[in-house]
Write a structure and sequence with these properties.
The protein is an alpha+beta fold and 535 residues long. The chain has eleven helices and 13 strands. The chain has a five-stranded antiparallel β-sheet. A four-stranded antiparallel β-sheet has the order 4-5-3-8. Strands 1-2 form a two-stranded antiparallel sheet. The chain is rod-shaped, with a radius of gyration of 75 Å. Keywords: Coiled coil.
């Protein structure tokens, strides 16, 4: 039983029918991009090689790479195959083999990508007794809907109609038909051990080249005939005589390690001109091309297009070489620029470190400037205070000068008063001395006089007492003036201290005044001392 291709489902009878919805989703393989190359091997890193490569699976074990290549070239009429190699990689996908045997896989690389697209149409074709499967390369990264073409082998079989040239009614006979029956064909050259797969292989081949309808079973009976121990043949009874005649188009059909040969049974007397003997490869080729185009002309055209593609490829490779040189130059310039950038980066780092250091220094300087500003503001405030003190002191000096002038005036007045008092004291002293003399005189008069002179003495005594009281009052007045003078001296001393401080601050202009004040104070004290001595 064969495995369905993409876009086909298995019917209840075990054959194929198409899914139109899936077919409509896919595109035709003629519209795919085209590539060509001179390479003789598959490059695992080249996407273009995957476009021109296909994977052929379920092959017979003993088949060689040359047999696969020649079969594809003969069937497809391709321009050429560059390489065919055994594929040992594991490929995923639903692959079902005809004889429940694991077949081999080949990777085929074509010269033209259109041949690779056309090779996908061979999916399901029989080759050497097996139904081979043709798919894209496993590393092909194109769209999923283009992994299989629109018209693969099974789809062509479904669309092709069977020509009905002549129908011969089948005789109803339970026994095997006679040699004269047109429905019997003899098959030779096969291994008897694979006899059970013979009818399935022939029926599949007839299906796949459009000799019978999809779902029909052309073979109704098969028997093995032993000629001798070595040579054996098989009798195949077909459903119709047309199917039997069409079986002769399968001459040299590959079946395991041999090629089948179809003959008529001995004693057959039918029309042999109706039996179209043709090799299996030619039948596949004619079916593949559909009898619609001249193979040689198509081959020339495809070779010409392949040469054009090769020229384009050469031009493209030359452009790629120029681009690679340009890219190498760009890489060198980029490396130089990278080195310059590294140098600049190191320089920038050093400069940034220097900038950071300068910023730190600037911050420290700013801090010191701020501290100096604070100190300057403090000094300004202190200076303003000092200026205010100086202005106050100047004002005080002015007031002290005024007071000094006043004090000088008062001192002058006091000196005048003291002189006046001295004069008064002298007069009083003179008066006292005169009074004492008078007292003495009075005493003498008193003693000399008697009682008759008492009234006159009393009068004189009263006069003396009045004079004494006046003297006491004057003495009290003198004491008050001395106290006032002492207060004035103390005030003068304070003012002298203030003048000393002013003289220290001004350092000039006050020394003479201070000396004068000291001299005045000294004269006052001398006067006081003399007044005290006199008192």
């Amino acid at each position: 039983m064969t495995s369905p291709a993409h876009g086909h489902k298995r019917s209840q009878l075990g054959y194929f029918h198409d899914d139109d919805s899936e077919i409509r989703k896919r595109h035709r393989w003629e519209n795919y991009p085209e590539y060509s190359s001179h390479s003789s091997t598959i490059n695992n890193d080249s996407i273009e090689d995957y476009q021109r490569s296909v994977s052929v699976s379920n092959l017979f074990y003993n088949c060689s790479n040359d047999e696969v290549s020649s079969f594809l070239l003969r069937v497809m009429n391709a321009v050429g195959i560059l390489h065919c190699s055994r594929d040992s990689q594991h490929h995923e996908g639903p692959i079902e083999y005809i004889h429940q045997l694991k077949g081999e896989r080949r990777t085929v690389k074509f010269r033209d990508c259109r041949d690779a697209e056309a090779a996908l149409c061979l999916n399901g074709i029989p080759f050497l007794g097996r139904q081979i499967f043709v798919t894209r390369h496993i590393k092909w990264n194109g769209p999923e809907n283009s992994r299989r073409p629109l018209e693969d082998w099974a789809y062509k079989i479904h669309r092709k109609s069977v020509a009905k040239n002549e129908m011969i009614q089948e005789k109803s006979n339970k026994n095997f038909p006679s040699p004269h029956s047109s429905n019997v064909v003899v098959v030779k050259c096969f291994n008897p051990e694979e006899f059970k797969f013979l009818s399935t292989c022939i029926a599949t081949a007839m299906h796949q080249i459009g000799l019978v309808h999809m779902g029909d079973k052309p073979i109704i009976d098969v028997r093995l005939w032993h000629i001798n121990d070595i040579e054996k043949m098989a009798f195949l009874e077909f459903r119709t005589a047309e199917d039997a005649r069409n079986a002769f188009l399968l001459q040299k059909l590959p079946f395991y390690d041999s090629f089948l040969r179809f003959e008529r049974k001995l004693g057959w007397k039918g029309d042999s001109s109706l039996d179209r003997h043709q090799d299996w490869s030619e039948s596949i080729k004619s079916f593949f091309h559909g009898h619609k185009e001249d193979s040689l002309e198509a081959l020339d055209n495809r070779r010409q297009t392949a040469n054009d593609e090769i020229k384009k490829r050469d031009e493209y490779e030359a452009a790629l070489n120029e681009k690679s040189k340009y890219l190498m130059a760009l890489e060198n310039t980029i490396k130089d620029k990278d080195s310059k950038i590294d140098f600049l980066c190191t320089k920038i780092e050093s400069q940034s470190n220097e900038v950071y250091r300068l910023q730190d220094m600037e911050l420290s300087q700013r801090n010191t400037i701020d501290s100096l500003r604070e100190e300057l503001e403090k000094n300004k405030s202190e200076h303003e205070k000092d200026l205010s003190k100086i202005s106050q002191l100047e004002k005080d000096a002015k007031t002290s000068a005024i007071q000094r002038d006043k004090l000088r005036a008062t001192i002058d007045e006091k000196s005048k008063q003291s002189e006046y008092l001295e004069d008064c004291i002298k007069r009083q002293d003179s008066q006292i001395s005169s009074m004492q003399q008078k007292e003495v005189e009075l005493m003498e008069v008193k003693e000399g006089y008697s009682r008759g002179g008492r009234n006159e003495l009393n009068f004189l005594w009263k006069e003396v007492e009045t004079k004494r009281s006046e003297l006491e009052e004057k003495s009290n007045r003198i004491k008050e003036l001395e106290s006032q003078n002492n207060k004035h001296t103390e005030r003068i001393m304070k003012l002298m201290d203030m003048l000393l401080t002013n003289e220290r601050q001004n350092q000039e202009g006050g020394r003479k005044e201070k000396n004068e004040c000291i001299n005045l104070a000294g004269s006052d004290t001398d006067k006081k001392a003399r007044i005290k001595q006199e008192n």
